[in-house]
Design a protein that fits this description.
Length: about 200
């Protein structure tokens, strides 16, 4: 008689311990968790699990606090840049301007699938790989259909997108299955703050 049963969607989306990070390429990933940086108010760690089961984290910089107040000391250019980079995560997760018109929060991203460009440590000549800015699904699909590889892999037929920073890649791949969409959106920050 069996003493445990691991569901198929969990075991197939989880990398075995000792599994290497994926090669440089384009992947789908699920956002598992978003945590604030311990000392930098604008920084968030975004933990993701690739379709291969590989897990890592990247960085997101946001110029607003949880109440929608702009953080002090930032120039207009910094605010626009951070908002544009943050919006890339939402666009990659499938959100539209219509859905975002009343504001967004990081709660919206947890459990969502995004489309990313990954640069392996080997191609970077570094200890860790780098998770690049998420891509819109249409761009991701086009790259996959054309068999493109990021230029860092030597293909030379693509331009890497803006790099939000290195990721600390953990190869244990504790993957989590996606909830598959159709999820009711949490209220916008302005509504949530008054609840």
């Amino acid at each position: 008689m069996a003493t445990f049963m691991i569901p198929g969607d969990v075991i197939t989306k989880t990398a075995a311990f000792g599994s290497p990070p994926p090669a440089t390429g384009y992947y789908t990933a699920t956002i598992d968790e978003i945590k604030p940086h311990k000392s930098k108010a604008s920084s968030r760690q975004v933990f993701v699990t690739f379709e291969t089961g590989f897990s890592c984290f990247g960085w997101m910089n946001v110029p607003f606090d949880s109440n929608g107040n702009q953080l002090p000391g930032l120039s207009d250019k910094q605010v626009r840049g951070m908002v544009g980079a943050t919006k890339s995560w939402f666009i990659s997760a499938g959100f539209t301007n219509e859905q975002m018109k009343d504001g967004v929060s990081d709660d919206w991203l947890v459990g969502k699938t995004i489309h990313v460009e990954w640069h392996s440590a080997d191609d970077l000549g570094a200890q860790y790989g780098e998770l690049q800015m998420p891509l819109p699904k249409s761009v991701f699909d086009k790259h996959i259909a054309e068999g493109r590889k990021p230029s860092i892999a030597g293909a030379g037929n693509d331009t890497p997108v803006n790099n939000p920073g290195k990721v600390a890649a953990k190869a244990n791949g504790a993957g989590k299955p996606s909830n598959g969409g159709g999820v009711k959106l949490p209220p916008p920050p302005a509504v949530a703050a008054t609840s």
